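Onboarding guide, step 5: your first structure request.
Type a short instruction followed by the sequence, for example:

Predict the 3D structure of this protein.
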Amino acid sequence: MTTEFTRQRNRMNAYRARDIAEGEMFKIARLKLLETDGAPDFQPVDGTQLLWAKNSASSIFMDVADQNYYVLVSGRWFRAK
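The system replies with structure tokens like these:
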């Protein structure tokens, strides 16, 4: 795990412990670290308006039309601006 990921996980654990002590209910979001070998190397997907991050083990795409990013994680698609 990266140092930044470990730091974020520790912060979430501290918030969770504080909120549980205060009796608050909340939902924890799961995080997925996406890595590329350097800056994303987006290549066109033939016959579409999609770009694919060639230098990543993850399925990372960008839709040129709406400038949204799409990623496939555990069989589910997620979108980000």
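Each response can be followed by summary notes, for example: The radius of gyration is 17 Å.
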